[in-house]
Amino acid sequence: MSNIKLSHMSHWKTIPYKKIDNFRNFYYEDKRNGAYYSDWDRILRYHFATGYEGIEVAPWDMAEMMALFGTPQNFSSFAKERGVSVSGMFHGADNSHIAEKFDEVLESGKRAVNLLEAFGGKHLNTCPCNNYCEVGPLSREQTRNAAKVITEIGRYAVDHGVQIGLHNEFFCAINKENHREFIELTDPRYVFYCLDTAQIAIIGEDMVKFYDDYHERINTFHLKDTASPKLPDEIRYSKDIEIVDDGTRWFWEPGEGVLDFKGLWELMKKYQFKGWVTVETDGTPDLLASMALTSYYVKHELAAIYS
Amino acid sequence: MKHGISFEMVDLHHQEPNRNVRESKYFWDELYTLVSASGFQYIEIPYEPKWDFGGRSGIPLTNRSITVKFQNAKNYLAQLNQAGIKGMVGIHLDPSIFLGENLAMFFSATNHYGTEAIDFASKIGADFLTLTATPPIGALHTVCPKDTSWDDFVKAFLQKTAGLINGLADYAAQKGVKLCLKNEYWTLLRGKEVVPFIKSLQTKVFLDIDTANLKITGVDPADLVAENADLIGCVHFTDTSFVDDAEYYKQPMPEFPDGRATQVFKDIGQGEVDFPKVLAALKKIKYKGTIVFNCRQTRDICRALLRTRYYIDNKLTASDKEWR
Fold first, then answer.
1. How many domains, in total, are found in chain A?
2. Closest Cα to residue A212, out of A168, A266, A279, A277?
3. What are A's interface residues with B at a Cβ cutoff of 8 A?
């Protein structure tokens, strides 16, 4: 049995059908590939076929997913029939740096934990605070406020069989100057860390060294490459920088950028990492191609080191 | 009679290869020139605050995004003009994304973004804001409280909707913008139901004639035009060959009929709407507003633009000197 289980972060946008039974007729309506990206049945089969045992669901898809499946449990059963489990869910803990918003942020976090528990998932990968351009730089008190409420969400999560994993986006207010302090301010019994390999490198960290330093806190990964490590502050902190006007991509499939994944895998072997590694392919023009490329890289380039 | 094209042809919500490019500004900058090259001088946008929440300001479909990228509406209009587009004639706001169990929040958010969209329409010189009358019937069923009958729920929902629309219409009138109601085939006011509702309002609200949506409910759009000349605020030419023979309109996601996957809305000229008949009816009532062509759900934006242009020039208005 493999120590590493591959999952895929759902950036599919809205999938409008649960299962298309009239696939051939639907295809013949315009004889293009839209039919191939329109139902969960096929999307989940692509996951399994390309080597993914898991899917990380996205909160922004919930309204449509619930319209199709009714309950998280129904979705999970449907996915399980196709060989895929829900590994986790993303959660944005907006306003967590504001002391007066403590109750609101905690309640929102608890709802996310409950939802993920209903899906049967483990990892609530949580981005604290808002974008840097909106609220940064944070004062030490604001950073402490965020750590306090995130710890409380983490305590609730652990009680419900869920683990929250801190997830820093390169454009968020928890950033280069305060993210290590932030990690230390949270309680390691309740708050874990999801190492997003590209985001942490863009912030300015050496991704491999970061794992070495924090391997005891890191319980899961968002795996992606970048060609833009150590991005200057003035770019990271600029407005709405996640999507660039000229189409510049921050994220690439592992092996297509410059990060040292083989070095990371050596450390994962050293520390005997066991768990979900979630491939995230945001920014790709072709999710299915990126899934296949990444799966190939992990299973053929990295698996010789550790699997 | 002016005519334009709706940016609802740019599907941002569903997956297909290369969808991601639609979130970046460069995609839209080029789109304006393609729209112009295909002979359209006016555009309509769907007002989509959803993208504001994720900081997707490359998508020019809200006041925020246009302010972030162009500083103000005037500069945005200048960019459109430079590409050969004379202006934005209308805006469509579908508040269904705000629907949840907290109905007070739904009405509050609709009012907030409706007001914002009216302000934006006024700043950019758009003639109208067309508001989707209600969320889908199937989605409303999911938020109808268990201890309330459906009939009572609908009655109360429509009363609150009327109050909301009265307020927005007042504000729109102050800003020189027409408030219209769009009645998609899945709303509580589908088909002709919207007409008595509009007439019952305390403020002047206009009717959006959307051809495909009417046809799917069994209403002949030409008849509705003839019967309601003084109510019409805007016209959308949309095409379809969909026949709702199993009450798909009652489903939570009616645009994607569960059990029968299909492209409900076709590119102009690819479906079965009798556009010449509707155009004749509009001429008969001396309609002076805009016809917005909408290829919602198209699988190919450039093909949709050219198919629409071909249809207009060669099928709809080939012998129409007045149009040219």
1. 1
2. A266
3. 12-18, 20-23, 25-26, 29-30, 32-35, 37-39, 60, 63-64, 67-68, 131, 239-240, 242-247, 283-288
Q: Do A240 and B68 touch (CB under 8 A)?
A: yes
List CB contacts (< 8 A) between B21 and chain A.
Answer: 247, 285
Sort A187 into a burial class: Cβ within 10 Å, 0-12 / 13-18 / 19+: middle
CA distance B285 to chain A (A): 36
pLDDT digits (tens, 9 = 90+) for A26-57: 999 999 999 999 999 999 999 999 999 999 99
Q: What is the pLDDT of residue B15?
A: 84
Determine whether the interchain pair B263/A17 forms a contact, defined as Cβ–Cβ distance below 8 Å: no
Q: What ipTM was assigned to the predicted interfaces of this complex?
A: 0.95
How many beta carbons lie within 10 A of that of residue A139, not counting itself?
Answer: 10
Domain range for B74 is 2-316
Number of domains in chain B: 1
A307 found inside a domain? no
Range of the domain at A142: 4-302
Q: Which of B18, B138, B260 lies nearest to residue A285, judging by beta carbons?
A: B18
Q: Is residue B323 part of a domain?
A: no
Which amino acid is residue A74, in one-letter code?
N
A178 inside domain: yes
Task: Name the closest residue on chain A to residue B58, using Cα atoms.
Answer: A245
- What pLDDT, on the 0 to 100 scale, is given for residue A155? 98
